[in-house]
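During the no-cost extension, the postdoctoral fellow (Dr. R.K.) reprocessed legacy sequence entries with the updated structure-token encoder. One reprocessed record is reproduced below for audit purposes.
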Amino acid sequence: MPVAHWNPWTEFETFEHVLNRVLDLPFPRLFDNGPHEPWQPRTDISATDAAYVVEVDLPGMTIHDISVRLEGTTVVIAGQRQSTHAESAKPQARVERPCGTFQRAVTLPTTVKGDEVQATYVNGVLTITVPKADAARPRQITVQAA
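Re-encoded structure tokens follow.
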């Protein structure tokens, strides 16, 4: 099973979101994800017999805003989402879409074929396919009678 870095503040942000929905009150943000604070995009990780697939939600970005690199068995996704609100614009009543720089690291449990990694970005979703090394792929062993 892949190991992902855990951000403990995410649990508090989720609680804050639920509290705001239940009470329907415009509480000020407890953990403001302003342009100076890092944020982490939502990520799904799956595995097949041949590869690991990492899917990252990055709506509103371009491929020029995103960087993907492989460090051993760790996939590092980094980038920057530009704010859609101009500095000189009138104050916003509520801003929930994070902007600024981010970095997300996902450590895969087995060795991979680093030279065959592929990354595509379609409809706001970055999909990274990391093929498993041949030694890490499951093999069927035939049982023979003695």
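The chain has one domain: 3-84+95-134. The mean pLDDT is 80. The remaining legacy entries will be reprocessed before the final report is submitted.
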